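Lab notebook page, bench 4
Experiment: in silico fold of construct C2
Operator: M.H.
Input chain length: 139 residues
Purpose: comparison with the prior construct
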Amino acid sequence: MTQKYLYNSYEEAMKVVKRYGWCIESVHPDLITSEMAMGAVKSWGGCLKYVPVHLITPEFAMEAVRYKGYNLKHVPTHLITPELALIAVKQRGYDLEFVPAHCQTQEVIEAALRRDLPAKKFIKVKRLMMEALEEALDG
């Protein structure tokens, strides 16, 4: 079954998406530009999951994660940094699930556990897990 798109012209899509970011889901992917995608993300960060991966930049990722940490789930792994991870886990510790091991710093893990201690199950670096658990339980 082919998906039908509500917006098949760039001009029409641009008007709608800047105001209602979630509408980017209904735009044909060939029409989505960086400018349109950024307008959508600024309107509703959750629309990052509808932005073609090749258009996602660190700026898009930051905007979406600041909007809601859970959007880290839709950020390509190569764009996730410890700084971005920290923003996400400070909002919701469980978002540690989407933080790759190379970004799970002591600071990121501690912030996640302070927010949601059960997020410990998502720690990928075991040595840091023990240190962070000690810190979280003591602090």
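Observations: Residues 14 and 36 are 6 Å apart (CA to CA). The mean pLDDT is 91.
Next step: discuss at group meeting.
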